[in-house]
Amino acid sequence: MTGVVGFPTLRLARVRIGPYTVLSLKNQEVIEISDQEIRSLLFYDN
Predict the structure, then answer these.
(1) Which residues contact 23 (CB under 8 A, 6 or more apart)?
(2) Is residue 16's pLDDT more than 80?
């Protein structure tokens, strides 16, 4: 997608989804979030 305008993507990493960041997680660690938290992510406004 970015290559079309002359900026090829060499690396892409998601580091945050809404208020959740990967900085507080250990490698391969998983957290569970509630249904309410999932719904709030749909309408999350930074």
Answers:
(1) 15
(2) yes
Asked if residues 3 and 27 have their Cβ atoms less than 8 Å apart, the reply is: no
Q: Which tokens hold the place of 42?
A: 């749909």
- In the chain, what is the greatest distance between 2 CA atoms, to the nearest angstrom? 41
| Confidence (pLDDT) at 46 | 64
Buried b (16+ CB within 10 A) or exposed e, 2-36: eeeeeeeeeeeeeeeeeeeeeeeeeeeeeeeeeee
CA distance 3 to 38: 32
